[in-house]
Amino acid sequence: MKNDENEILIQYKKYLTFEKNYSKHTVSNYERDIKQFFSFAGDFIQINEKVIGSYLESLFKKKYNKSSIIRKIISLRNFYRYLVKIKKINNNPFEYILTPKKEKKIPGVLTEKEVELILENVDCGNFFGLRDRAIMELLYSSGIRVNELVNLNTNDIDFINEEIKVLGKGNKERIIPVGSVAINFLQKYLKELKKISQDKILFINKSKKRLTTRSIELIIKKYAKKVGILKKVTPHTLRHSFATHLLDRGADLRSVQELLGHSNLSTTQIYTHLSIQKLRRDYDKAHPRAKK
Hints:
Elements: H1 3-19, H2 24-41, H3 49-61, H4 66-85, H5 112-120, H6 127-142, H7 146-150, E1 157-158, E2 163-167, E3 173-177, H8 180-196, H9 213-226, H10 235-248, H11 253-260, H12 265-268, H13 276-286
Antiparallel strand pairs: 1-2, 2-3
Helix pairs in contact: 1-2, 2-4, 6-8, 6-10
């Protein structure tokens, strides 16, 4: 890299870190994307839409996926906004470059019978078996994210109103109803937990420390494998199953949005693709020529 390019990039990284409070991972991604473009464009100041078009074409030819290309465009758009901000350039050449439409992957889900099979085959005769059952019952009953679950404390559960308090994305707090089955297992678990730990942490490991998201993933994977479910099962699978089963049984999309903690309804709408079984049943029931 040329000296002026290197100096600007150093200053930009400081700006992202200290003014924008971006994580090290995000800053590293930005730096890699910018350096890649510098290498392609040569003079990073004197560029135009033709240069940008050639660069994007090269990314497609190298078979970068759409998510990576979208991230690179956003990285560069923000970088050139910074150059405008410090008056290094007058106009942002990436300002009106459209990003490819991101492909929405339909998440995997379990059937209601598969969820029941996993839950019913947990041995609750010991503390950790009871803990695992309470974890999975809560994930499926509330639809909370795994990072929200591991950060729960004992005082976040309202047993009287059958609700939990979680801190979601953007430090937004929300109150979520929990089914009586999950509440029942949480009560049993908490009774045993108090015998071995007086800490506020809800779900602990053998060292009485807070469980990690990775630990939860391994727990769920273990029980899915135990009952012979071959599809990939993760904590998010239970969250997806929670949303899908609610919609299958007639829940309102906006209610599901609130429960999941989605800021945009469009994020929740992906679950409508998973509710085709309900649509099929409604169609067969309502259309005069659906079945003869």
